[in-house]
């Protein structure tokens, strides 16, 4: 699908046409095209074919062979569009039927030999591509991905504005927010010894906008978290951040659904169906994860009832679950042993495999401990057909489901680039995700998340069972973002802080300004943030978010092109009142692998 609309692509300035736009119907036109020399081939004694590239594509120009043309030079070529001889038509190129003849070539800028061939991007080490990112950006892949990203942003903006949301920018120089991530600190020159913090999200700022009467806010916001980098995480990332007042969870889900569906349609032509909602508990039971990939089946099956009373000891557990792998009944023993090892590595006590057979029901090393009646019940529950493989794990519910959820992904998950786009909402997350070393509960989302109305009374008595009014958006097995209805009542907030071990003084010093604002009339409100880097990566079919970011950092946090981070000069440090106590990381480690 083309990402550049013809109406906006009007050639101007030095060019009268774009390279990739020329077709047979343009024959006879004299045009000027501008771009980079993609490659050059000799053509007889005096002529050469010069392929000129701009972001729309490539046009073959027949030029005077005497000229000294080199790859990546910037050229303006004026020539006449003409049909190629029939046997020279290139069906692989949008301009493959034509070429530019009688060309006059103007060298706009010379170019040294590039450090890597743009045609050989996939074989080029990523560190080299990042070091010369401006060259990498010229490749089709990066052009496509970043233009797709721009289209996603503009579709999201359209959808939010249509729904009455107002775009408001919140500060980058800010103060800590309690969302759990390590923050970047910026020293204040004017107030020595004091620091700003780069926002890990506009969370508090947007809640204050609600107090301020902007009842539908959105922002395409940059967020910064000083956490270890991974394929799906950078220090800085972008979110579609929203907050709305006088609405509940259903409305927030609807606002966000509308935006992500519009963006998906804008760049893929695929309009996903209305987004289904599943509770956290249902997702765990059916998929063994809170970010289910709905593009494929292999759902978890509860066998606890089916195997009740079975002799086999391992099945005498609180939870017995299985997945059935279609057509895997012939897998060799070595492969099955590897699955058992994988399950153990994931934390299971063991894994029972069973081959569904036409004659003797189930073939398994443990079949002799399981009566035929129980075997039949297992086959019925899993709907296993002869030739299928049934994998069973037993133990406590949550770890059992999670092990099988991971095996389901290992064995069945399609490639990132495989359509369709299957979104889903996960709701009713637990309010607390566990207990820390000091015995305090840990918030699963953030401390302003409203407990589920039916569970508020368990806050003090059975807190780990309290569900929250928080929700995640998931796409094809990736978590795209989270949100929640916020606590706007001081009494509930006090109880949640208490459960989290946040004292009144603590609360006052960390986010007193938010609590203070709430004393002046806080509307009921809630919001959400969609991680755009991940969303765009999925829409572009990329499994690494660096492929959809213009200037990403490497795993060690370095920008290989600019050399950041770098030591400051002594003068700059003195001005900030900062003395560096340990030597800066060596240059060598800054440029280590991507
Ligand atoms: N601030 C949250 C986050 O960054 C999103 C939200 O609750 O709106 O994950």
What does this structure look like?
The structure is a single chain. The chain is α+β, with helices and mostly antiparallel strands. The protein folds into four domains: 6-109, OB fold (Dihydrolipoamide Acetyltransferase, E2P) (Beta Barrel); 127-267 and 523-594, BirA Bifunctional Protein, domain 2 (2-Layer Sandwich); 297-412, Gyrase A, domain 2 (2-Layer Sandwich), CATH 3.30.1360.30; 422-520, Bira Bifunctional Protein, Domain 2 (BirA Bifunctional Protein, domain 2). It has 14 helices and 22 strands. The protein has helices spanning 126-131, 133-136, 140-162, 203-211, 249-268, 280-287, 333-345, 372-382, 397-412, 490-500, 504-518, 532-540, 570-576, 587-590; strands spanning 30-43, 47-54, 57-64, 74-83, 98-109, 166-167, 185-187, 195-197, 216-224, 236-245, 276-279, 301-302, 319-325, 352-356, 362-363, 389-395, 423-427, 432-435, 441-443, 470-475, 478-485, 525-531. Strands 6-9-10-22-21-20-17-11 form an eight-stranded mixed beta sheet, sandwiched between helices. Strands 3-2-1-4-5 form a five-stranded antiparallel beta sheet, with no helix packed on it. A hairpin with a 5-residue loop joins β14 (352-356) and β15. The site of aspartic acid has 8 residues, from β21 and β22.
């Amino acid at each position: 699908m083309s990402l550049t609309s013809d109406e906006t692509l009007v050639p101007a300035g030095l060019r009268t046409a774009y390279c990739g736009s020329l077709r047979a119907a343009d024959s006879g036109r004299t045009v000027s095209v501008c771009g980079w020399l993609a490659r050059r081939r000799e053509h007889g004694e005096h002529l050469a074919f010069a392929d000129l590239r701009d972001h729309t594509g490539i046009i073959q120009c027949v030029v005077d062979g005497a000229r000294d043309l080199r790859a990546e030079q910037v050229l303006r070529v004026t020539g006449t569009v003409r049909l190629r001889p029939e046997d020279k038509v290139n069906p692989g190129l949008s301009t493959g039927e034509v070429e530019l003849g009688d060309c006059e070539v103007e060298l706009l800028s010379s170019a040294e030999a590039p450090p890597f061939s743009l045609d050989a991007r996939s074989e080029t080490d990523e560190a080299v591509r990042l070091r010369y990112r401006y060259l990498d950006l010229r490749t089709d892949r990066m052009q496509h991905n970043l233009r797709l990203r721009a289209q996603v942003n503009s579709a999201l903006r359209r959808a939010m504005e249509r729904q009455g949301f107002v775009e408001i920018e919140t500060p980058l120089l800010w103060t800590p927010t309690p969302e759990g991530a390590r923050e970047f600190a910026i020293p204040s020159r004017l107030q020595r010894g004091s620091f700003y913090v780069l926002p890990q999200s506009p969370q508090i700022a947007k809640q204050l906008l609600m107090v301020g009467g902007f009842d539908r806010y959105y922002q395409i916001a940059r967020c910064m978290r000083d956490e270890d980098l991974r394929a799906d995480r950078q220090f800085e990332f972008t979110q579609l951040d929203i907050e709305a007042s006088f609405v509940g969870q259903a409305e927030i889900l609807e606002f966000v659904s509308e935006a992500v569906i519009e963006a998906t349609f804008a760049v893929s032509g695929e309009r996903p169906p209305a987004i289904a909602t599943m509770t956290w508990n249902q997702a765990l039971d059916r998929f063994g994860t809170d970010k289910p990939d709905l593009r494929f089946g292999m759902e978890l099956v509860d066998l606890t009832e089916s195997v009740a009373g079975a002799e086999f000891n391992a099945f005498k557990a609180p939870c017995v679950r299985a997945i059935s792998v279609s057509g895997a009944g012939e897998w060799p023993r070595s492969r099955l042993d590897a699955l058992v090892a994988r399950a153990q590595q994931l934390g299971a006590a063991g894994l029972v495999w069973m081959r569904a057979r036409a004659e003797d029901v189930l073939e398994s090393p443990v079949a002799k401990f399981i009566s035929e009646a129980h075997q039949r019940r297992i086959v019925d529950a899993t709907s296993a057909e002869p030739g299928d493989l049934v994998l069973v794990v037993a133990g406590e519910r949550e770890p059992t489901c999670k092990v099988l959820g991971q095996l389901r992904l290992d064995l069945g998950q399609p490639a990132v680039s495989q359509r369709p786009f299957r979104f889903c909402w996960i709701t009713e997350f637990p309010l607390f995700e566990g207990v820390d070393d000091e015995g305090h509960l840990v918030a699963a989302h953030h401390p302003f998340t409203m407990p589920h109305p039916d569970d508020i009374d368990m806050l003090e008595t059975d807190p780990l069972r309290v569900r929250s009014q928080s929700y995640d958006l998931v796409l094809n097995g990736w978590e795209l973002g989270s949100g929640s209805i916020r606590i706007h009542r001081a009494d509930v907030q006090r109880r949640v802080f208490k459960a989290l071990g946040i004292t009144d003084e603590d609360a006052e010093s960390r986010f007193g300004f938010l609590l203070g604002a709430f004393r002046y009339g806080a509307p009921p409100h809630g919001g959400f943030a969609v991680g755009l880097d991940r969303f765009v990566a999925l829409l572009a079919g990329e499994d690494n978010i660096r492929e959809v970011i213009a200037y990403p950092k490497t795993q060690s946090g370095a920008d290989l092109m600019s050399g950041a981070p770098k030591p400051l000069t002594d003068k700059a440090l003195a001005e900030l009142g900062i003395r560096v106590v340990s030597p800066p990381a060596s240059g060598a480690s800054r440029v280590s692998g991507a």
